[in-house]
Amino acid sequence: MIYIFSSKSVETLGFGKKDTGIQLLPVKPGTELSILKSSGHDGQKPDQVYIDVEDLTPAEVKRSLGQLKKGAGFWGIIDPKGEAEDPAAFFFEGANDYIGSALVKKGLNKKRFASAFSWFCSREICGRGEEADDADAKGKGIKLPAGQFEGWKSIRPGTEGTFFFLFVSLTAKANLRSMLSDAAFSATRSALRDVLQQGLFQAEALLWMETEQNSVFLVPPRKANVQAAIEASLRLLANNHLLAVEKLGLTFPVELTFALHYGDTLFQAPGKTGAVISESVNYIFHLGAKKAETLRLTVSGDVPEEAFPEGLKDIFVPSGLFEGIPIRHSRRFTNQ
After folding, report:
1. Which of 27, 236, 248, 281 would you label with 191, given CA atoms 20 to 30 Å apart?
2. CA-CA distance, 1 to 73, in Å (whole number)?
3. What's 201's domain CATH number?
4. CATH assignment at residue 70
């Protein structure tokens, strides 16, 4: 079943009158979305749940997302006018799909929804186990391109390329923003940005996407670059406590989280990535926000074996599957 919370009609969204398996539900303040709990973890296929955000206030969107995260196995966003400032932020929240203005104008159809659901099932809970051996790592036989990276300006916007995606998050025991004034929070985010960019300088990493709590860097698909990124990430984790006190000026403990993935995406310059949606972008957001652990670097099985620096591979331990891909966690660094 496809559930769509929207003030529009099925026909307005582009479905035909004969389309079955689609149920429209009203969008109004106080609408309880969490009743649509997925049964997928019991071996059945979960429902697809979408919410049309066009007529919702930011507060209503935030409340609805919280309910969807708790109650839906597969959920997505319909944004008929493309008004969301940063569609990628929905994936940080755990969304599985985003349908923007271009698709809505063409008219939605069940084939589009079926494709998204098929991808979800192949990588999440439909017929997948949760254990994987290290030998199953998908990137084991991949050889990274040779030669020096020619710089980010050499990549034409709108072209597709293969990159490493490095997710970084800073968390505290309570919501970080609520613990600081607006000015202090802004200063902390700015200081963290500087620390990360300096630490990842040798990797030639590009700060590509950023929200209040999370950052995603693109790392060139070269052995030297990704090894430098892994070393820098582990160094920052090892110095997490000193970084918080000396670099960020905080008086309470915070913890860094890192995740690394390897895949394809359309390239756009930072600040112009709002319309960039790809399987790899989706995956790194999910890996970082839903599976990665604090004070660890989590690496997907799509990352080639030669990406690991000599002598450091042994600190990464197999940790099962996430969305159908084997993952490894680095051994935990502590704040002691």
Report:
1. 281
2. 12
3. 3.30.70.1230
4. 3.40.50
